[in-house]
Amino acid sequence: MAYGVVLRPDAPTSRSLMELSHTIGDGHEPLMLLGEQAPPHVSVLHVDCAATQEAGIAAATAPHRGRTFEATVIGLLYSVVPPGDHYVPTGGYYFGLEIIRTPVLDALHQEFLRLGHPPLGLVDRDYRPHITLGVTAQPPALPPLTQVPAGVIPLTMASGPVGPFGTFPHLVR
Q1: What is the pTM of this model?
Q2: Inter-axis angle of helices 54-61 and 103-113, to 10 degrees?
């Protein structure tokens, strides 16, 4: 089972990111857009683990609950995802916000890697913090650039089972 540790923006920021997701992806055969079942987040680490191990991972998040982490958005990225991808098996078009890989975010990623569960996705040297805005089957639109956030976004920790397309429909804060 896939389980993840993530950093979540506050409610107003989440709403604006959901709106941006739909501005870009609506009408382009969306496979995944942000919403209640797919909240915006920066992944710290996704792992493959037995359901009996989830409580241990959630417990490892306890020292970080309530702490605010800062993520700096550096741009909007569009990418083609080839068929066979772990998160997008059919392939499609990814769009999201790239985040600076700061020493704080990297240390957090390394801390959860050391728990020893088999990691999923890009990890260790390849860890690339980002906020996935969506995935579409057809090339997505370019939004008005004034809608794209820039600068620092405050985030707090959550964890939960990984859903389709790397979503988190049941996060525990």
Answers
A1: 0.94
A2: 150
